[in-house]
Amino acid sequence: MPLPTPLIEALRATFGADLSLAEAERVAYSYDNSRLHALPDAVVFPTTHAQVEALVRQCREHRVPVIARGRGTNTTGATVPVDGGVVVSFERMNRIIRLDPDNRLAIVEPGVLNGDLQQALKPLGFFWPPDPTSSPWCSIGGNLACNSAGPRTVKYGSPRENTLGLRAVAGTGEGFRAGTYTSKGSTGYDLTRLLIGSEGTLALITEATLKLTPKPTGLRTLRATYRDVSAAAHAVARIMAQPVTPCALEFIDDVALRLAHEHGGDSVPMAGAMLMIEVDGEPETLPSAVEAVSRAARGEGLESLDIAQTAEETQALWSARKALSPAQRTISPNKINEDVVVPVSRLPELVDGVKQLAARHNVLIVSFGHAGNGNLHVNLLPRDDAERERAHACLADLFDLVIRLDGTLSGEHGIGLAKRPFMPLALQASTLDLMRAVKSAFDPDGILNPGKLLP
Amino acid sequence: MPLPTPLIEALRATFGADLSLAEAERVAYSYDNSRLHALPDAVVFPTTHAQVEALVRQCREHRVPVIARGRGTNTTGATVPVDGGVVVSFERMNRIIRLDPDNRLAIVEPGVLNGDLQQALKPLGFFWPPDPTSSPWCSIGGNLACNSAGPRTVKYGSPRENTLGLRAVAGTGEGFRAGTYTSKGSTGYDLTRLLIGSEGTLALITEATLKLTPKPTGLRTLRATYRDVSAAAHAVARIMAQPVTPCALEFIDDVALRLAHEHGGDSVPMAGAMLMIEVDGEPETLPSAVEAVSRAARGEGLESLDIAQTAEETQALWSARKALSPAQRTISPNKINEDVVVPVSRLPELVDGVKQLAARHNVLIVSFGHAGNGNLHVNLLPRDDAERERAHACLADLFDLVIRLDGTLSGEHGIGLAKRPFMPLALQASTLDLMRAVKSAFDPDGILNPGKLLP
């Protein structure tokens, strides 16, 4: 169903050449990294907050869906316009408005790339902690929409812990500010965190005030291999129970190591499981931190523990992890990438459970991820249609296992389309009802990113 | 207006002897540390989540207000039952349900005292960062309701950064769970943070899953005095712009020092202003941390810098800060205790501005507080009725100044009754409208803590 003519005219008045109705361009904005797709009726490229207000008001008048989009790196279909409507690409709202190290904050537009912000902060001695693997090409707006995190979360938190305030436009077309320019505040309801992780279903973020952290000047990398996944998972629990919190604590299982070895060569160790551990801090503090973490990494089932002394050695240690993504792609173009999370002490049960599910459903599964948060990327790699079907059955069992272990569906990818049917597994009916009521409060006509997140 | 008889009967069936209608007891629950008061029609003392559900359903049926109460240590009148109704004192829901250091979490009922939890965590090597000055006698539920923080917030964050999940009862009487048992999650809207700081206006918290932090085994205390408040405020900004974040960075102005000196004797230094600074970490890391913070503390206007070497010296350094509260009480029983917050770099302007306001309105003002967050406790100490009237006029100018400096009304005390009329200064009309819509989503009949927070 094409857009009503009066809406097209209104959009043209607001956006001029920054409105696109051409099919070629609409196709480019019809999918994201989930590989799901649906054609939008139009794409707009706002450059100001006022344009976003006008857009939402105009679309609301005609009950036309509005789908916010960063750079489409998400894996859940959260930016796929399943009901058509207008995709709002924030790629041209990409100004860093203020870098303010004295107040440990930065004010940015949503289209700023995570990596560009980190580059701009480097000479000031600060960083913004969330660091998804897609950091060079994902946008801050997208990071906020999905509460996307990354390895550093284990020490520094996710966007919810690293955002002070937002400017946004609700589904009514009303612009508003939430939060503060201060590192502390107790002035009314926390709408800032409510918007973070809401995947564009409550409001469109047009500006973010981010909390910055001083960048430690020292970093040391350790690599530990273990007899089996269970031994590695127990080491993770030991590391997290002592006071020195690493700034990365990544787990790679035996299947993933074998894959990486085939693809990356002999620099990748063959083992039952591997942990990559990083500790940061001022240089004088690193020897004692490395010692504390090493002590915890040792124990039943440890096979090797290497501590990089140089930048080259650090790179060599990370080679296995780096070889992993291309290796997976060679096996299955239809990778199903999950990011379940459990309490750290349940990680041994999760990795064991995943192995059993892989065997029972006869599906190739590769597990790795941010073990310090109990956040495992469970990648199902179906090699043909039959295995693909088995993979989907396996997925339901995986979520079931995770919930039984007191975990939840998503650590950092969000819900989108992909996990929406599983939400009632993770959340009570009364919680979902409240979320729906909150949705109505922000978006009474349900025009913001319909069909996502809430079942 | 007394409670309807059917409601009294229903409450009696639910609570038995844990319902109190006696005036003597109602009086005890009619006020909080704001010294405002209003008599409730009944007080109940739940011991289970199910009782809280029944209570809210019963009160909703009769449109009777329900006011949650921790230990009444708040200073804003947030627990005063201005419209009568039933005060729900959580003092008997005070079980620590689970201490789980392996997953860095604790599950508690809302009536657990902050100090009791810290004591229980000590042997495990962990702590819960929020540490209001009232920590020995304030409840976790109250801390969550007001997003109460304390000195350690500068390094470790407020309750919003240190809570993983909640169980609660909405204004509909429906129980629900929000959040996770994991240190990371992106499964739907963040209702956990939305409830934190909502002062019992959205839901009644019946259980909290708190994020624990390993307790560093080392701590060093520094005391710096300065020629004037402006020099000290500039030192704060320098300290916060370097990478070693102190775990306390407290500011005390000249008026406060003079008061403390009169009350506490010669161990309290006389100076233009003073900073109390604490750094924590593993013992090996402390010398370099102390050196980094000392370097930043030095500069224009520094008069002395003392570093405590022993526990006794640490106590001596803190003596001025400790003498402050009793000293204030001797001067004015009607202290107006504000907790405004500004970006750290605006602190010099704030302290200068407060001095000008004190002179212009002819009011005694003592300023001290959590400078590392830009959070200043501005205490107006009227000594008679005329000064009390001038103090109230001064307050309006203070909030005006704070907003002009990009600050906000409250850092950690919340809004309650006291700051409610000033909310439109701090928040746009559209933001307040959204907060009201959220309130309706959780509490459609407006029975939860009416007359608080939202104007």
From TrEMBL, chains A, B:
Domain FAD-binding PCMH-type: start-end pairs: 36-215
Q: Which InterPro entries match?
A: FAD-bd_oxidored_4_C, FAD-bd_PCMH, FAD-bd_PCMH-like_sf, FAD-bd_PCMH_sub2, FAD-linked_Oxase-like_C, FAD-linked_OxidoTrans_Type4, Oxid_FAD_bind_N, Vanillyl_alc_oxidase_C-sub2
PROSITE patterns in UniProt: FAD_PCMH (PS51387)
User: Which cofactors?
Assistant: FAD
Q: Does the keyword Ribonucleoprotein apply?
A: no
Pfam families assigned: FAD-oxidase_C, FAD_binding_4
Which terms are listed as keywords in the entry?
Answer: FAD, Flavoprotein, Oxidoreductase
Q: Which GO terms describe its molecular function?
A: FAD binding; oxidoreductase activity
Q: What family name appears in the similarity comment?
A: Belongs to the FAD-binding oxidoreductase/transferase type 4 family.
Q: What is the recorded name of this protein?
A: FAD-binding protein
**What is the taxonomic lineage of the source species?**
Bacteria, Pseudomonadati, Pseudomonadota, Gammaproteobacteria, Lysobacterales
